[in-house]
Amino acid sequence: MQPKNPLQASLQIFTKPNGVFEAVNNNDNWSWIPFVLVMSFVLLPLYLYYNFVDFEWYRDYIVNSTAGNLSPAEQNNIRAQIRPDFLVVGILIVAFLFQVIVNLVLAAYLNLVAKTDEECINGFTDWYGFTWWISLPSVISFITAILVLALAGNNQMPISELNPLALSYWLGLGEDSKWFGLANLVKPELFFSIYLIAVGLSHWTKFNRAKIYTVAIAPFAIVITLWFLLIVIN
């Protein structure tokens, strides 16, 4: 069953994605809703965290974990530059731009691959809208982060603890670990998003099943592999 509006589609993407991608393909301007939702899921936990955490403790934590080998004078200089207002605004801007750029790259990839299907009439803007629908599983991290903040016993908590479903959390990796970023990427919504890409491709292209899953998995497999190799080499 196809949803009748983008809000309904945003809910059905978790239970009836087939109907969602059919509806999105037949309706213009629906993708603004998942864009707003995804950005909210990404930015709101960060905003709440930095308004919750003991900032003096957080500043010391950052300095000790990233500049512990520097002299006390150099560490104090870094501390003086970490101001809550600029830090929060900066992190929110970076997070916003990062999500936009990641989706742009993914859309460019999907658009390029889709051109091998002569019957596919979707262009780059269609695929860019598509990326916001497959990003909606970020609600999983949003919900867990809100629960962690609500149940936190104290406000001296590393930001890594906001993501208890990530592999980095289960491996006990801190932000100072070279493996943290890669392990933090591996979480349930990653696999859900890959599945949604496959579902969307099955409706927007005439690719066979093997090609659909190859296309869906390939960009993430490449990123993870290259990231892993860079860590090992360095």
Describe the overall structure.
This protein has 234 residues and is mainly alpha-helical. Helix content is 72%, strand content 0%. It contains twelve helices and no strands. The radius of gyration is 20 Å and the shape is elongated. The mean pLDDT is 92.
Largest sheet: none
Shape: elongated
Strand content: under 5%
Low-confidence stretches: none
- Helix-strand sequence: HHHHHHHHHHHH
> What is the averaged pLDDT score?
92
| Number of separate helices | 12
Task: Put the structure in a nutshell.
This protein has 12 helices and no strands. With 234 residues, the chain is mostly helical.
Brief descriptors of the model:
234 residues, mainly alpha
How do the strands and helices of this protein lay out in sequence?
Layout: H1 6-12, H2 17-26, H3 32-52, H4 55-67, H5 72-81, H6 84-114, H7 124-134, H8 139-151, H9 167-170, H10 180-185, H11 188-204, H12 209-233
